[in-house]
Amino acid sequence: MAKISPFKFLQEVRAETDKVTWPSRRETLITTGMVFVMVAIASVFFLLVDQVALFVVTLVLESPVYLGNLNPILVLAGGGGVALLAFFAWTFSKMRHGR
Fold first, then answer.
1. CA distances (Å), 44 to each of 13, 30, 41, 52, in order?
2. Are 56 and 37 in contact (CB under 8 A)?
3. DSSP calls for 35-62
């Protein structure tokens, strides 16, 4: 098994870092600026997508639900949430009674 020397390891690390082409200060600033611009663009994009999804989900969940023989006053009284809950209760009762 080869001996491990911390001094030799540090010499090899230094030799490898001398081979690296480091970016200039200007290149680093330009790249950093581009990252901030792309983050801003992505943030606006996801904000818009989130708002559209919120609008669609709200539109779907708050629309009246057809419940067959269930009382329409109950459906319209509480908005979409109560209508959805009433629909699930109605469906469960139909499944339970085998109809």
1. 43, 21, 5, 12
2. no
3. HHHHHHHHHHHHHHHHHHHHHHHHHHHT
* Contacts (Cβ under 8 Å, ≥6 apart) of 80: 61, 62, 63, 65
Neighbour tally for 88: CB within 10 Å: 10
Q: What are phi and psi of 2, to 5 degrees?
A: -75, 145
First to last CA, the chain: 78
Q: Which pTM does this prediction carry?
A: 0.48
Tens digits of per-residue pLDDT, 21-75?
A: 999 999 999 999 999 999 999 999 999 988 888 888 887 777 655 555 555 555 4
